[in-house]
């Protein structure tokens, strides 16, 4: 150390905090990039969840198709199944693995070949009204499971909460779709068999479990229309009709009640479809927004760190140069004094 010049000692003294600052800046930028890259990688999870949600919506929609829109809805189902396959392949290609997601996808793959025989029965006029419940409903439920499990595997808390709300909304919608046909059968004077009554109780359980969850997790602009319908006269009629279905045997066909039931439950179905579409769009927009924010944070942090680093290095060089000139001036004066 004694052999080092004063200039070199100053350099050593100044370079330690400079290196510490540069290390901290690099670490901060790296952390920002890590957050951005993590969310970017998880976008495949969000895509898988969104496509699973669409599956859970379009399969029941095909069950309620009319001869006029049947071909259109079938095409939507086929296109969505292809999109789900791609989303799943992208999810696997990103190195992801989750038993629950893989099991849900396997259910959809298992049920997909049964859709064509179901369609053939519908076209031939031989389809039992409940066939859709046992063919399409399991695949629809598996789509919901993709949404639920995807939310559990994503790290971003805000997105996970929104996906949980989306899943809960889809579950409540699933309950409503089950209730439509069973209510039509009951009010039409048809006694529910044990399997049908079990489905009715399953729908009741879905509503009781998930309705509080989606009203808590989703934004007010999505929850408010649902609450407005639920608190209306039509909502009260649905609740009263369901209560009878839970507790009273069939008393014969009630044409007025059946007509109103069909009208109000279809209106509720359309409302839920609109809310689901709005929630799906909000989920995609939120994911893109968060990804854009993290990208900007990374870019801004990199620019700030680079500019400050250049400024500090320039200041460091200026100070060392200034001190060196002062030392040389003092050295020259001392030499001149020594020379007389």
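Sequence proposed for the structure above (340 residues):
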């Amino acid at each position: 150390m004694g052999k080092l010049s004063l200039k070199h000692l100053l350099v050593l003294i100044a370079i330690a905090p400079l290196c510490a600052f540069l290390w901290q800046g690099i670490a901060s930028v790296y952390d920002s990039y890590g957050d951005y890259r993590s969310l970017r990688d998880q976008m495949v999870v969000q895509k898988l969840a969104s496509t699973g949600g669409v599956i859970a919506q379009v399969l029941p929609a095909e069950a309620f198709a009319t001869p006029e829109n049947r071909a259109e809805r079938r095409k939507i189902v086929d296109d969505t199944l292809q999109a789900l396959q791609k989303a799943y392949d992208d999810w696997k290609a990103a190195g992801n693995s989750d038993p629950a997601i893989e099991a849900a996808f396997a259910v959809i793959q298992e049920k997909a070949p049964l859709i064509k025989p179901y369609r053939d029965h519908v076209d031939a006029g031989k389809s039992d009204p409940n066939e859709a419940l046992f063919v399409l409903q399991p695949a629809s439920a598996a789509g919901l499971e993709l949404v639920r499990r995807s939310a559990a595997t994503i790290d971003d808390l805000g997105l996970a909460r929104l996906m949980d709300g989306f899943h809960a909304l889809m579950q409540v919608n699933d309950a409503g779709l089950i209730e439509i046909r069973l209510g039509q059968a009951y009010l039409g004077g048809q006694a529910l068999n044990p399997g049908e009554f079990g489905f009715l109780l399953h729908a009741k359980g879905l509503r009781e479990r998930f309705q509080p969850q989606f009203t808590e997790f989703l934004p007010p602009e999505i929850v408010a229309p649902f609450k407005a319908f639920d608190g209306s006269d039509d909502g009260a009629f649905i609740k009263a009709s369901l209560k009878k279905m839970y507790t009273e045997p069939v008393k014969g066909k009630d044409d007025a009640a059946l007509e109103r039931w069909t009208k109000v439950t279809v209106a509720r179905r359309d409302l839920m479809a609109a809310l689901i579409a709005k929630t799906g769009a909000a989920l995609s927009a939120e994911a893109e927004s968060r990804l854009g924010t993290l990208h900007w944070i990374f870019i801004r942090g990199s620019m700030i760190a680079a500019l400050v680093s250049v400024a500090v290095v320039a200041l460091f060089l200026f100070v060392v140069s200034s001190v060196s000139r002062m030392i040389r001036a003092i050295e020259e004066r001392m030499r001149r004094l020594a020379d007389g």
